[in-house]
Backbone:
């Protein structure tokens, strides 16, 4: 960086007015004269000076802000990677790639039998609106690779530039070639100390990025010769390298009532934890009461994609996910979704929290519910008979509501094993009865239940759901 020699003029140095008046701490100058001490006020001058200095500061700040890289300030992400399809490594190959959702791919087209041995640059637009990527240039040592066309990149989209020829060769002939690992690497495994530079021009403003992780030149050596693989997963330029990737599925276990919705989330990142956006994730249920269902989703800016489905029967589903790229398929861990049955009809029966004892008999419906079910908060209103119909998909930590007596229209029959809510308080406000959900338990129901409160509903507590 060129340095400017400091001026010999000392900015801000105090100069004395004529006859060397001395400036006192109140901003008043004085000098001796025949008529005694004459005082001159410099307050107006000081005020003007402060104004000038303030304006100068604001102008300098504005110039500094205007000089900030446009890409860094506008939600534009720049990533670098290396694609080696001759030595397939499924977790290392840059993903997304050609054919991925929301991706504009400026490389060897899908219609060709492409063999990749090339660096790659990905520009991701999360700015909130479309931008024009005027150009991308990659400089590695004495070689500069450029020539990819200008594109309009929609919000949420990715632009990938790489080798456009179907077969890789050495040299500086971009954009057909981008074999950036072979620049200055003789002997092949000797460190060349070259640090690549990427220049991205967006909406007419060029920003320069230093690939300090040497992703584009595979660490400064020829990785294909030295390590047998050159592929490197997308890495935020200026970090890494973050060679591989990881795909996980969460939560490990969840429980829902039949007829409600379960959601699993896949997270795809590189090995540094940086999210990989615009990747298609495939979901499947290989086993369980809902086996055979599938779905797909695209990772967002956090590298996450979700899959939701409604359970139709009780039991435990196994859910999996995967990502497929040019080198193969990356699987996730499997997770479980447990489906339980609440009372039919979109409601649930309730017991008091002091009755929540594993293996004990529970009284979940009847005219004497308020006497049989004890609450830590005291007695329930006598008009509550044990059934709520105001929460169609109840879960722990939520609340429920119902109406007095059997006006809540309880079901005519119940399953042999049923999920039942546990409440710590029941209150009545006019025609509305409400309570909380501190637990949900599984109850093995006894015979004898009917929708009439005179036919009580009881059963054995066999498990706690939440």
Residues:
């Amino acid at each position: 960086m060129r340095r400017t020699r400091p001026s010999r003029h000392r900015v801000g140095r105090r100069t004395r007015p004529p006859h060397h008046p001395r400036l006192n701490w109140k901003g008043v100058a004085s000098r001796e004269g025949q008529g005694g001490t004459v005082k001159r006020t410099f307050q107006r001058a000081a005020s003007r000076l402060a104004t000038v200095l303030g304006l100068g500061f604001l102008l300098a700040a504005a110039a500094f802000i205007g000089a900030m890289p446009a890409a860094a300030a506008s939600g534009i992400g720049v990533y670098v990677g290396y694609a080696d399809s001759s030595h397939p490594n499924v977790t290392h190959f840059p993903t997304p790639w050609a054919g991925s959702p929301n991706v504009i791919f400026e490389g060897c087209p899908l219609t060709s039998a492409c063999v990749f041995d090339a660096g790659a640059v990905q520009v991701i637009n999360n700015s909130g609106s479309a931008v024009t990527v005027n150009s991308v240039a990659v400089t590695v040592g004495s070689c500069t690779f450029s020539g990819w066309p200008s594109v309009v990149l929609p919000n949420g989209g990715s632009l990938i530039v790489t080798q456009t020829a179907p077969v890789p060769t050495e040299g500086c002939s971009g954009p057909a070639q981008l074999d950036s690992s072979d620049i200055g690497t003789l002997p092949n495994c000797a460190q060349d100390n070259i640090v690549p530079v990427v220049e991205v021009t967006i909406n007419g403003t060029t920003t320069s990025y230093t690939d300090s992780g040497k992703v584009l030149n595979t660490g400064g050596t020829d990785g294909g010769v030295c390590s047998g693989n050159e592929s490197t997963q997308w890495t935020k330029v200026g970090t890494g390298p973050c060679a591989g990737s990881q795909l996980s599925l969460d939560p490990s276990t969840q429980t829902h009532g039949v007829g409600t919705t379960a959601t699993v989330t896949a997270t795809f990142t590189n090995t540094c934890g940086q999210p990989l956006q615009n990747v298609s994730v495939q979901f499947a249920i290989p086993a369980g009461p809902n086996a055979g269902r599938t779905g797909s989703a695209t990772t967002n800016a956090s590298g996450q994609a979700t899959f939701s489905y409604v359970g139709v029967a009780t039991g435990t589903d196994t859910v999996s996910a995967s990502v497929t790229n040019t080198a193969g398929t990356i699987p996730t861990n499997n997770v479980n979704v447990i489906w339980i049955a609440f009372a039919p009809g979109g409601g649930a029966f309730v017991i008091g929290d002091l009755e929540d004892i594993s293996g004990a008999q529970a009284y979940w419906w009847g005219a004497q519910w308020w006497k049989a079910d004890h609450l830590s908060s005291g007695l329930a209103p006598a008009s509550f008979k044990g059934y709520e119909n105001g929460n169609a998909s109840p879960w722990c930590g939520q609340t429920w509501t119902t109406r007095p007596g059997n006006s809540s229209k309880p079901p005519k029959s119940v399953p042999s094993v049923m999920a039942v809510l546990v409440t710590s308080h029941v209150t009545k406000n006019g025609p509305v009865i409400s309570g909380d959900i501190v637990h949900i338990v599984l109850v093995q129901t006894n015979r004898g239940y009917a929708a009439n409160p005179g036919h009580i509903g009881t059963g054995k507590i066999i498990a706690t759901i939440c």
